[in-house]
Specification:
The chain is an all-alpha fold. The protein has one domain. 59% of the residues lie in helices and 3% in strands. It has 10 helices and 2 strands. The chain has helices spanning 2-22, 34-50, 56-68, 80-91, 103-108, 137-145, 149-160, 166-174, 178-181, 184-202, and strands at residues 100-102, 130-132. The protein has a two-stranded antiparallel sheet. Residues 2-22 and 110-125 have low confidence and may be disordered.
């Protein structure tokens, strides 16, 4: 009996240590492996395009700066693989568990509305706008496991109103301090909410 208790305590201790060291891989909420494949494709595109070696901070910040200033060269950055993945995400946008939702549906969900300084007006007579589901499982996992107060504040703002310019989101993320910026949760957010959100809009231009 004593041995079994010691074994149980040891197991719980090891699990706790493993959790604190490795955290949670939020991409595992998708059992198909699509999220992981998309994130790897994003990082491959970024590092091959900017050519800053293994300097992830400089690579990510340069990308965010170009998105914020609307100077990103979208003819050269995305690979065919990333474009195809964006199309898969777009096709899945009608699924109940999609990480992208229609803006009109998002706005109709019950939520406390607060004015946001980042809001841009919706345009009429255009194709239905898709936005990242800031109230969904993936983003909530990233938010809850992040140690950055700035990042969590950004997500909380988007939960209330998702109709926010991608360039302004990039600008906010850019100014998160290095010691928190290098966290995997923030990098994954950049991959999906910024990179793939852009690709889903422009994918038609790639034939």
């Amino acid at each position: 009996m004593i041995r079994s208790r010691i074994a149980l305590v040891t197991l719980l201790l090891l699990t706790s240590i493993s959790y604190s060291q490795n955290g949670i891989n939020c991409l595992s909420v998708d059992s198909s492996g699509l999220y992981s494949k998309a994130f790897n494709a994003f990082e491959k595109d970024l590092f091959e395009y900017y050519k800053f070696g293994n300097d992830s901070i400089k690579t990510y910040r340069t990308f965010l700066a170009e998105v914020a200033s609307l100077s990103l060269d979208l003819r050269k950055l995305p690979s065919d693989n990333s474009i195809q993945l964006a199309r898969v995400f777009k096709k899945k946008s009608n699924d109940p568990n999609s990480i992208w939702v229609k803006l009109s549906d998002y706005e109709n969900q019950e939520a406390t509305k607060k004015p946001s300084p980042y809001i841009h007006p919706s345009k009429k007579n255009e194709e239905e706008i898709l936005i990242f589901n800031y109230r969904g499982g993936l983003i909530q996992c990233l938010k809850n496991n992040s140690k950055s107060d700035d990042f969590r504040e950004i997500i909380s703002t988007l939960e209330q109103d998702g109709n926010v310019s991608t360039s302004l989101i990039a600008q906010r993320i850019y100014y998160i301090p290095d010691n928190k910026f290098r966290a995997s949760e923030i990098k994954k957010f950049i991959a999906f909410d910024i990179y793939y959100s852009i690709l889903m809009v422009i994918e038609k231009a790639f034939g």
